[in-house]
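Q: Convert this sequence to structure tokens.
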Amino acid sequence: MPKSRIRKKSEFTPPTATKQATSIKLTNRSWVAPVMLALFLIGLAWIVVFYVTESRLPIESIHNWNIVVGFGFIAAGFGVSTQWK
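A:
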């Protein structure tokens, strides 16, 4: 069986850095925390009012869908929380 030839590897030379690092300017996201907390609290209050008033409030005509509306506010709060940095 013939032996394979051994090849010499050239030494690694790292690429030269010709570009300057650019600074990333982040936008002001001070609105995220208050909006997120407000949505959480609105959703919680909606569900609590629904249970305390025995389905008469907040909107009587949609019956148990009031729970879905409350959880929708809470889900929107989680959606807004993804913008927090």
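The chain has a mean pLDDT of 85.
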